[in-house]
């Protein structure tokens, strides 16, 4: 940590001391000026007492004062204006510099991997701190710096010293009491005066001085005056010392005034200051921005505007800069504010400008005075005895005069406060509470606008209390001072006098710290509150800065370095760059002084400090800050931070004439990878060249203008890299630039569509394109669809030689095998180039180099090599002609890479023969573009389908080149040298008279070289075996080694009128056009899709209906029938669908057009429908068994209808005439229009037909009649009821029966396309994905017989609630849009699987599963029964009670009425059941009811009766059997009785007949019926 020369206590004691005004007569000043000092300057080094002093408090206790410092100043001293104060602060910092950047006083610390070299001290911060306390303006809210006493000084040579003393005293009195001047400020009305008679020993009369001094003692008292003798050295001795020069003027005497006077850099006028590391010469030319000029003018630096008014640049620098006019501003500081800076910064800039304008003359005088005092000695006529006399004078004045006066004043203030205390508590407290105080602060808003002063009168108790505290603090009576401050703080806070409150909080905290008492803890929150009040409430950053300086010293002394750093950082702002820089630097040192040093925070804040030093014009400190921060950022991959630091170090070093450091810094900007903008990096390069020219100028001069090899040094350095890449005959050299990202190389095996994807009503299949990135999930999706298609084509298994077809090979694909392309089709290779330089690169005549082996494939495993290896890498003409016949290679005439640009180039090959191809790399001519063409338009970038602009209208920044993927790409044979044609001219099309050729914009420099770069792609790292995991082994990547296969069919698919927006369930018909553009016959065309329910090719539609203009086939109605039952074959839908081509084949060049129906997905939103078209060649190819075509359709669906249905069991179970009612179901169907009422596009939905599809049930209406109009408007819903009856004649296993309920004039045939197709597709469930590791069917183990029996038993029980019924709702809607009104149709499907389970066409939201509570003990796991659910077990049977509705009985004759009751029980399950009938709930089996979860009816009975027969019956029922039981009920009185209060238990029985074994605990209580009421009346 940078240590201060003073401790915190010493700093606080020196910061606050009694302020004394000095009033000197002219003759007294003349005596002092002989030593080039004023009286105040002469006595200032001796104003700190070296001995103890004593003072008594109001309780008469003696307090010892240590190291009392008296602050003397001229009485007429005015506060410096803000501009002068800034000048003084800047000079204090700039005149205090470190010895060296890497000096011997540096501390070395090691933190982790960092070895840091830090400054051991920061004297510039201490100088700033002391100067800041001197120039801090006075305020009325505190009295610490108000003048306590006045010293009147008169020379003994004066003609009438006593009269002069009187005049000076009256002048002080008038200045304090009658003058309207703002300064000086006095502590008390009766200022203590001390009179000093100064006597020149060398020239004055001693006797007269003694006589005058006696008169003074009689007039002012012995303790009120002093005789000061000075200038004891004779005049002749002083002249002899002055003859020896400035170094010997003072002889061997100490110079105690040097640390108190303003310093000036003595090296300013040094002749060799230009080479010195500490020189400040020419520092005013420090650039705020770097500007780019013409190439022959280098780089111009612009001085910052904030330093021009203070530091005037030398004439040489000004004249040199005037000759260079900047062209364009290209560099701005990375931390510089933007133009839209906050209003606070703008107001601060305006204030500084006004200060600079008003104080220019004052600062010029200050500079001139400082320049005159630069080499002038001080104290030339003072001896050591005079030094002692000055020290005695200060001691006598303090001990005999000043301290007794302060002691009396403290006693007087304490007595006044004590006398007011009782009165304040009684009368004034009451008046203040009820009527309000008379102080202005109590009426104010709490925001102080006049620096906090003037809101209290001098006679107020608050002012007296504050004065008492300040006096006690000045004389080190800290206990009494804290009491006063703490009391005043409460009053100020209540009065909302925030300036006074902040001052009291600040001084109260300082008093506690200076006490050093362990009983009272230091209140750091007082300081935080004071800083916040000063800075935010009072808007006074000066006093906030003082509080921060004091508080941070205390925190550092208490080892609270983190809190100190935060206070430093919070005090930084835009109103002072110098202050912010120093505080940020101190915060950085705090971070390194912690127990765990935080070096990165240190570096970051040092960067901020360096930036603020730079803005303040402190170049050396800025360079030092950046250099120290560079130790942390160097080599840590923080490129932007490192670039910023290196650039700033280089710029600062250049302005400080440290050229070696500048060259080293700028060099790092060029050799490291940078992320700066192109203009920034261009400026880096130009600055490096400019600095290099400056440093090599001396080298050329010292070496006679030549380098070591005899060439011009600068020219040799600039031309070193020009002659690289010399061409060797027969081969091409390897070029280092641009970089090629080999891993990003992509190979497209199929030809991209040469036409737009959508043209009018035609939509072409999207296929695979290089413009669309292919990620791993998308690639895996297409591979899975292809696997499904291949399995269907090969009877459910994958061939051993099968590999998925990947048409675009990249880093996401599996490249372990050689890809296969087709002869005569384009092969596109996308190579990604990256330019790491700061200038454009131009690649001309860019093409692929390859190696090809022609092979004729005879059949499976048969090959015939035709020629030796052919390559286009050789330059021999004979080989090139053969290469042009084998493989057509595209040549890009010009490919421009802008600075720091990464851009792909798409290079095309067209193989003309079968064989094995190996792509080796790329060949091109490399050159650099001119600086005026750095901004390159993307209109001519490779890979974009944009034709080159015409030569007449082409802007100079547009790159003209051949379009990469045109409908008929122009391929330049490799045999034609691209250098033979003119590359810098374009011939426009001839229209009329011929015109001279237009000149092409020049991008190719005069120096270029022909060369190549190889494409070497590293494969993936292997990690399958132990050896591969323990070592680094990479697999092979064969994406650049394609095999050219014989011709194959090539399919193109187009969709006509394909919808992009549908309603949910809407059905539309479109046409699909299949075209074979290949050279072979195509057959076995299939479509694989992840959404087969979306489309249908009309598999179940008759031939005569395919050309109908209607979507649905209609049938006539016979009379009033609702419709008849139609049967159709069950269709098993899979992901792969055969396309019904005519004759099953498609010849080369032939086109087939087929209808296709699409249906909107049931859920609204945007859906992507994937189509994979699989086809094979009629002629088997040895290298390619099939081909695929990808297409993704994007369809947006909107809400239409929502249907909900539920199946319930009919409660009728009659045995006689209505035997069929035992197998009836009641279907409740609800439909809701989900369209909003305000939607004007769709007015209403009309229900055309409700159909049921089931192999078991038929449907008949209950609630609604057939052939009526069923319409549903917006947000309306309807409810319909149907009865489902079992078929009288069971249908075949592979058939399904369609029952239609018609609400239209015509019946829609729901058993044919498209109605039945989409119904079968709605039942589709995606199968689990097959894995290659799954065993084949031949190797599967036989199923376990016990498990099979268990599953069968479970299925038999579930048959009681299984429904197997699907509903289809066919609707139409009227749509009004821009084209007019038209009708759309659609259908919704709903499948009912179980009884009493509602089903909906909309997906129900998943219920929120509550997390179980966290337990810390192990819970016992209960076995879960995997059998049939409780809901199924409670509906195994259904029963009903048949009885008369009313029975009349004469109870007067017969007291018991017996009525016969018939109980009908039907077995709904598929197995034999044991039935237990319980009529008495109190029996032993009645406990089973308590275990049953079935809901019991709320009314169990209305009256009491007794069953006299059939009270407890047990029997078995076969599957589907119905049994009728006769029972008798006995009633003893008239009433209404519920006879359905019977509990029936059912369960699976073991055995037959009388040997049935049943565990009664396994029986399940069946669901009870509704109450069955019977009225028993008395007929007597």
From TrEMBL:
Sequence segments annotated as region (Disordered): 235-362, 931-1002, 1329-1352
Domain named TPPC8 C-terminal Ig-like: residues: 1436-1546
Biased composition, class Basic and acidic residues, residue ranges: 262-271
GO cellular component, as recorded: TRAPPIII protein complex
InterPro entries hit by this protein: Ig_TPPC8_1st, Ig_TPPC8_2nd, Ig_TPPC8_3rd, Ig_TPPC8_C, TRAPP_III_complex_Trs85
Bias kind Low complexity: ranges: 955-969
Residue stretches making up the TPPC8 first Ig-like domain: 774-1063
Protein name, per record: TRAPPC8 protein
Organism: Branchiostoma lanceolatum
Name of the gene: TRAPPC8
